[in-house]
Amino acid sequence: MRWAAALAFAALGACSSPASDQPLEASVEDAATDLDALDTALVPNDAAETGAAETADAAVEVAPDATDAAPCPSDMVHVGVSCVDRYEAPNVAGSKPLAFQTAPEGQAFCAARGKRLCTEAEWVRACEGATKRPYPYGATYVRGRCNDDKTWISPSWSTLGTYPSDAAKKEAARLYQADPSGSRAGCASEDGVMDLTGNVAEWVVRSFPTSTGYEHVMKGCYWSGCYGGSNPSCKFVNPAHPGTFRTYEAGFRCCTEAR
Question: Which candidate, 172, 200, 150, places its Cα nearest to that of 31?
């Protein structure tokens, strides 16, 4: 199922670009070839999710008492008082994370699965862990530990703004550099949540004051680092756009309350 309803771009500009512009040449043929791959990253991987669900169902049949007693579903991690998806949506190990998403699309995706978009506070708690580490994997930034070291490719915002046109999808495919979820084993939080920094930026419901006051903000930076050149830390936040802003590197993950 494809997410429909194209949402207008707001304040088009290189808002997601790191400080150092290092364009990377990519052929039109490669972009066209990657269109089907991007479609997979734009919509849920129903086959993979179905397989994961069947595996979970089998586990329930084998040990129903243990599953019923668990505070979180098997595809989520118990973090504080919440359950957080282990991977970025579609929350399947080895699948490409969704990108080119808006916050409302994330909310709809999560609601359809009995979950909701994570709050900023939940996301920060998952990233810092109980010991409040500045990076999900520890106290010191390590470039490339997470997928945050890809060379930035300059986007055509005018083309992206024509979404849901094929041209917009091809442009997003050209820009897409996310790793399959869980590929970098070292990019794990204290609780075992994967890819919180780097890979795709994640829409969350804002918990803390910002200069813009938008309901949603983006956390975790993305595959080419952070806007402005900051290290991809648990604290970094991009509050520059409303949740309806569609940008090529933005995804999300889902949360719910623990049982």
Answer: 172
Q: What pTM was estimated for this model as a whole?
A: 0.78
Cβ(164)–Cβ(21) under 8 Å?
A: no
The domains found in the chain, sorted by start residue, are 68-257 (3.90.1580.10)
Question: What tokens appear for 113 in the block?
Answer: 């699965």
* Whole-number Å distance between alpha carbons of 128 and 189: 7
pLDDT digits (tens, 9 = 90+) for 205-228: 999 999 999 999 999 999 999 999
Q: How far apart are CA 101 and CA 218, in angstroms?
A: 11
- Which residue has 């949603």 as its token pair? 216
What is the CB neighbour count within 10 angstroms for residue 9?
A: 19
Cβ within 8 Å of residue 193, ≥6 positions away: 77, 79, 84, 85, 86, 126, 127, 136
Rounded CA gap, 160 and 238, in Å?
20
Map tokens 């993950």 to a residue: 253
pLDDT digits (tens, 9 = 90+) for 116-157: 999 999 999 999 999 999 999 999 999 999 999 999 999 999
* Cα-based angle 252, 256, 259 (whole degrees, multiple of 5): 155
DSSP three-state, residue 216: strand
C-alpha 165/C-alpha 170 separation (Å) is 9
Number of H-type helices and E-type strands within the chain: 8, 8
